[in-house]
Amino acid sequence: MSLASLQASVQRNEEGIDLALKILAQRFGERFSTSAAVREQHGHTTTWLPNQAPDGVVFARSTEEVADVVQVCAQHKVPIIPFGTGSSLEGHVNAPAGGISVDVSQMNRVLQVNAEDLDCVVQAGVTRTQLNEYLRDTGLFFPIDPGADASLGGMAATRASGTNAVRYGTMKDVVLALTVVTADGRIVRTGGRAKKTAAGYDLTRLMVGSEGTLGIITEVTLRLYGIPEAVSGGVCPFPDLDSACNAVITTIQSGLPVARIELLDANQIRACNAYSKLDLQETPTLFLEFHGTEAGVREQSEIFGEIARDSGGGEFVWATKAEDRTRLWKARHDAYWAALGLRPGCKGVSTDVCVPISRLAECIGETYKDVEANGLLAPLVGHVGDGNFHVLVLVDVDNPQEIAKTEAFIERLNWRAIEMGGTCTGEHGVGQGKMKYLAREHGAGLDMMAAIKKALDPDNILNPGKIVRLD
Asked: Are 339 and 394 within 8 A, CB to CB?
């Protein structure tokens, strides 16, 4: 993907940026940086999208400080790019027109835990791991688990998902309210702690998934869950991807309340064996987990074992010990880094799509044929219980033919998912990398998105060049 294509929709305001840099440097002192290393760290570096660094980075510590930064930038029409941990995958934190990165990592306080109401309030820089460690003695936990130890503000902004989504949903299901700084520097509270409301427009859902283009999230009110009495899980090998997908489809359609059901193809299992020191059979494999009572999880595991056998699967090997389950899921979360070892020196291009569960086997089957026909090395993993899967293409970025072949494959994958009634992204978000697919997926709805963006951010300073193009 060329740098020029990412810059096409935004213009740099040199004079305004120079003025904002001077004001912010005076106002924030040591918590403002223009060093090349810090700026580059706040551009996109996770995959092959070119790094577009901001002109300066502010390390904010409160909602009021974020509002202060936004007011300065709004006055001088300078772009503002929110930054949590930088783990997003589609160029969300790039600065195609320069500007100011607002780093919220120091906004890392858990503000309230309301155990009786099963909710909490956190600053945007709190990570999911930090929150669950804080909650450990309360009997509660936060279930959304995208793999990376992402900030909760960033997870809300990208509508993140993860391995538990099949049971607990995505960020749109667990965010009750937000504190947001708007494009003119106002501080807005989008909701309360009530479990439901019919009072006006749902501003919370509007902001969840807006990727910093409509406002900067500074506080998040989240739904929590009780830690289950019992957890069981394990792995089940299959002779081919089609058999594994059919087992998933049957499991979901039967109403079995599985908490996690993840698919790893043979290449990914080979990578995980080497990287995480596992000894799994190198064949398509499902990782599963069940939550509930002791009797409930035992029954669920036995029912799944029957489904797996009927679909041609091998023995479902239980991992009842917590340390064994932790080892398996650590390996699953390290799948990206493990896969890079399959082709040292190459970049990993991670892309995801999501389709209706009834089309899952067909979509994965056609995708795998596409991979093989084009001679690509592209391990496949997926949160397949909700029809979401990821392909990590390993690319020699110094080889123009490989780059072209990979871009064409990713494009076909996205069109395939959309044509099957799915989406170009189940959880990675749009950012820069998926913008070109939205017109086909949303039709006239994309014009409505652009109208909302223009209404809430008329000067296009909030994370410009992402999701929608404003010409």
From this structure: yes
How many whole angstroms separate alpha carbon 80 and alpha carbon 252? 42
Torsion on CA atoms 24, 26, 31, 35, rounded to nearest 10: 80
pLDDT higher than threshold 50 for residue 357:
yes
Q: How many angstroms separate the CA atoms of 9 and 453, rounded?
A: 14
Q: For residues 422 and 416, what is the distance between their CA atoms, to the nearest angstrom?
A: 8
Give the 3-state secondary structure of residue 29: helix
What φ, ψ does residue 350 adopt, rounded to 5°? Answer: -95, 125
Q: Say how many CA atoms lie within 13 Å of 466 toward its Cβ.
A: 32
How far, CA to CA in Å, does 161 sit from each of 82, 150, 172, 318? Answer: 19, 11, 9, 25
Residue in the structure block whose two tokens are 């596409």: 370
**Do the Cβ atoms of 429 and 378 come closer than 8 Å?**
no
Give the 3-state secondary structure percentages of the chain, helix then strand then coil, rounded to 5.
40, 20, 40
For residues 375 and 396, the answer to whether their CB atoms sit within 8 Å is: no
Q: List residues bridging with 231 in a β-sheet.
A: 291
Residue type, position 30, single letter: E
Q: Which residues of 331-352 are buried (b: 16+ CB within 10 A; e: fewer)?
A: bbbebbebbbebeeebbbbbbb
Helix (H, G, I), strand (E, B) or coil at 245: helix
- Provide the residue type at 182 as one letter: T
- Asked if the model's pLDDT at residue 65 lies above 60, the reply is yes
363 close to 249: Cβ distance less than 8 angstroms? no
Q: How far apart are the first and last CA of the chain?
A: 21
Q: Do 427 and 352 form a contact (C-beta atoms < 8 A)?
A: yes
Q: Which of 471, 464, 333, 346 is nearest to 396 (CA)?
A: 346
pLDDT at 376: 96
Across the chain, how many H-helices and E-strands are there? 18, 18
| CA max distance for the chain | 68
Instruction: State percent of the chain over pLDDT 70.
Output: 98
Per residue, what are the HEC states of 173-240? HHEEEEEEECCCCCEEECCCCCCCCCCCCCHHHHHCCCCCCCCEEEEEEEECEECCCEEEEEEEECCC
What's the confidence (pLDDT) of residue 50? 87
Report the b/e string of 211-235 with b at 16+ CB within 10 A.
bbbbbbbbbbbbbbbeebeebbbbb
Does the pLDDT at position 7 exceed 70? no
- Give the whole-angstrom CA distance, residue 293 versus residue 289: 13
